[in-house]
Amino acid sequence: MANERVRVRGLTIHRPIIYGNTAVVLSSEERASSPHPDHTHRWTVAVRSAASAPDSDTVGGADDISHFIKRVMFKLHDTYSNPTRTIDKPPFEVTETGWGEFEIQIRLHFIPESAEKLYIIYHHLKLHPWTVTGSGELEIPPPEVAAKAGPVHSWQYDEVVFCDPYQNFLNILMAHPPTPLPKAKKKPVPFHIANPESIGDTKANGTPEFTQAMVQEEAERLEKARKQVIAEQNKWRETLIEKEHLISELKTQLGA
Fold first, then answer.
1. Which residues form a coiled coil (predicted)?
2. What distance in Å separates the CA atoms of residue 199 and residue 146, rounded to the nearest whole number?
3. CA separation for the pair 119, 108 (Å, rounded)
4. Within the chain, where are the H helices?
């Protein structure tokens, strides 16, 4: 039993999650019967496992993540009653109605066995779909057109990393391996709208899904950006060195 409270040094283990929201346009009937007739959308913000269940209309959520996440706290806009929503069991999500977009703070509290501090992430609630016009400008279609296109989706992939975990916590994680993501894209990308080709059309393309290819592409983009930052740093470092040499030469000339 004592060994269970010993950290496994040099080991890093991660668990993939997604966080974000989906939103749909309220019908005129729903708005008329609502206590908030000015609200235009119903939305759900959630934290889920990254993999989706087969043939599911939900983005992510194939796995129960409560074996390492104890509770999730969502901080909504202050105009909502009880803006801090605490969810102590899955599904870790909040459903509301509204008309505006805003930033949501999400706090992940891990199980006591992890001995980990809370993890804070931020998500900008997305309600409105947008399209790119021929001139390259962004355009939001009217509600009746957006309603036909299907739900708006805005989801972010993340990996919760545990370094040097306690043995008992590691045992828990190893007993619940995550469902692997599909290798290739078969559904729409999980951002913007469920049916990006169907703006103005009722033809559906299904619920979006994360894939291994998307994760790899994101890693490659991050690596490319890292190299660009390093190259820019080296460029300005060389410029600084040249200027310092020039200043040194001018000081020498003035001293002579």
1. 212-239
2. 7
3. 5
4. 28-33, 143-149, 167-175, 212-255
How many other CB atoms sit within 10 Å of the CB of residue 155?
Answer: 22
Neighbours of 63 (CB within 10 A): 20
Q: Are 23 and 43 in contact (CB under 8 A)?
A: yes
pLDDT tens for residues 150-164?
889 999 999 999 999
CATH code linked to domain 2-210: 2.60.40.1970
Q: What is the pTM of this model?
A: 0.80
DSSP structure class, residue 134:
T
Quickly list DSSP for 154-222.
EEEEEEEEEES-BHHHHHHHHHSPPPPPPSS--S--SEEES-GGGTTS----------HHHHHHHHHHH
**Beta strands 119-124; 131-132: pairing state:** unpaired
Residue 1 is predicted with a pLDDT of 52
